[in-house]
Design a protein that fits this description.
The protein is an alpha/beta fold. The chain has a domain of about 260 residues: Ribonuclease Z/Hydroxyacylglutathione hydrolase-like (Metallo-beta-lactamase, Chain A, 4-Layer Sandwich), CATH 3.60.15.10. Helix content is about 25%, strand content about 20%. Strand 1 and strand 2 form a beta hairpin.
Length: about 375
């Protein structure tokens, strides 16, 4: 059965009213069309044949594999979700941002403090990561705090346009309540313009291009992934980010498979006081676009110039949305084991918890009792 046939089968079994609710607002949620993106994307040397490309070729799903994955996602039930509620920490925001600290709100949404600046990465506050309000992966834990309670931000950084990293409702609320710039990979600004983010608040960068906010330098760097919010893939760029103040540096991995290109990034931009690296939603069927926990530890080592015990690794992209087939806490169990074997320092905050890299506090294995 093809993906198209599977979709037809599913659609034939549900009421029309439900379908109407599921489809409500889809064109706006999906964002700008390829035609709207193309004038911005075409300026990139990595945009060829109407698409962006990874430096290292990445495997893609065969149609039969895609069908199997869709069927498995529909039928997996509660697999990959904890039996008990995920605990939340009370978010703390000092009046002055620290030299280097991070508050994890879940998935890849992190409030990063670098030399007194505050950067919010991949903010997603919606209940679902989907173009539909009633269909798609939903949160496994509540949002630790309302968007309106965030401190004043200096900039908002987005890694790519997938729904679990770029959320229309969150972007629109941040555009209304904050004055920070949105710094994004090239092409992605077309989505923001469609959602009425003012042009003067959008900065689009290609890999190895930088912009400054005061004394903070934000550099768009390579990742091994893909993009797309509708049926067409790779019309906007995907990226990792270097957040560098006068004395401290943080690396935000966004979403990426493992690549030895991280060694190049380590030589050019490292070492880092803190790396925020994805550890969840991996699977043997898509090894090139999501790194596994052991590869995250290797990526940290690569970014630190081969020094495994340099800088702090904080895992992201896990425990908020169930996007794969592994057990919900498996990423952290494997990460801790791999990090201990290499001597890599790791901090695993619960959602809402703030980690001050220069003032380490006792860590708890909060995930072990949730099942």
């Amino acid at each position: 059965m093809s993906v198209k046939s599977l979709v037809k089968t599913v659609l034939a079994t549900v009421p029309l009213g439900w379908l109407a609710r599921a489809a409500w607002g889809l064109p706006t949620q999906i964002g700008a069309s390829p035609a709207k993106v193309r004038p911005y994307a075409a300026m990139s040397p990595r945009y060829r044949g109407g698409q962006f490309h990874n430096t290292d070729p990445s495997s893609t799903f065969l149609p039969e594999a895609e069908t199997g994955i869709v069927k498995a996602l529909i039928t997996r039930g509660k697999a990959g979700r904890p039996r008990k509620p995920i605990p939340l920490a009370t978010p703390l925001a000092p009046v002055e941002a620290a030299e280097v600290a991070a508050t994890w709100y879940g998935h890849s949404s992190v409030l990063v403090e670098v030399d007194g600046y505050r950067v919010l990465t991949d903010p997603v506050w919606s209940r679902r990561v989907s173009p539909s309000a009633i269909l798609g992966p939903s949160r496994m834990h509540p949002i630790p705090l309302p968007l309106s309670d965030l401190p004043v931000l200096d900039t908002i950084v987005i890694s790519h346009d997938h729904y679990d990293h770029l959320d229309m409702a969150t972007v629109q609320q941040l555009a209304a309540t904050q004055k920070a710039l949105f710094v994004v990979p090239v092409g992605l600004g077309a989505h923001l313009r469609m959602w009425r983010v003012p042009e003067e608040r959008i900065v689009e960068l290609d890999w190895d291009e930088s912009t400054k906010v005061g004394e903070l330098t934000l550099t768009c760097t390579e990742a091994r992934h893909f993009s797309g919010r509708g049926l067409v893939r790779n019309t906007t760029q995907w990226a990792s980010w270097v957040l560098a103040g006068p004395s401290r540096k943080v690396f935000f991995g966004g979403d990426s498979g493992y690549t030895t290109r991280f060694q190049d990034l380590g030589r050019r931009y490292g070492p880092f006081d803190l790396t925020l690296l994805p550890v969840g939603a991996y699977d043997p069927r898509w090894p090139d676009i999501h790194m596994n926990p052991e590869e995250a530890v290797q990526t940290h080592t690569d970014l630190e110039g081969g020094e495994a015990d340099s800088g702090l690794l904080m895992p992201v992209h896990w425990a908020t949305f169930n996007l794969a087939f592994h057990a919900w806490s498996e990423p952290i169990i494997r990460l801790i084991a791999a990090a201990e074997a290499k001597g890599t320092p790791v901090a695993v905050p619960m959602p809402g918890q703030r980690i001050d890299v220069l003032k380490p506090s006792a860590q708890t294995s909060w995930w072990t009792s949730l099942g």
